[in-house]
Specification:
By secondary structure, the chain is an all-alpha fold. It is built from five helices and two strands, in the order αααααββ. Helix 3 (about 55-75) packs across helix 5 (about 105-115).
Amino acid sequence: MLCPFSKIPLSICRMIEQKISRFWWKSSNNRSGIHWMKWEALKNRKDEGGLGFRDLITFNQALLGKQAWRLSQQPLSLSSRVLKGLYFPFQEFWNASKGARPLWAWQSILIGRDSIVEHMQRSVGDGTHIKIRQDRWLASGIIGGPTPRGESKTVTNLMVQNNNEWNTPPKTKF
């Protein structure tokens, strides 16, 4: 049995899809029948002309993304604590690396994390835990680049401390 959060190899996904398509297209004598539509078309939704079969590769990736989200949102669960101790003891989950000789389950969770991280945006809140140039906190993505001298490192330094509003320079009139 597979671990509940492991990536299913592409070859196995393709083999399962092939078995499903053979079932649907076989004739009554267990012989291969006529393929009226491509398998890719059958995976479309019914309102798009398909039969609504799941694409197993993207479905597996979505389940891995769900596991990654669960690890980040439930840091006190046993699996979160074990994986944190093994792979990212001094950083947060979203910045964790693969590490040396990682378990297949950890590699799978990282695949899920990478599939959802591009669709995420952090809530700023008070900004104490968000790095300006390294974290994704803007809709346009990560700012990146080297940090200039004298620039604040966290978003909290860009805010007025007492009311959590943006610390904007005064406007000059021309």
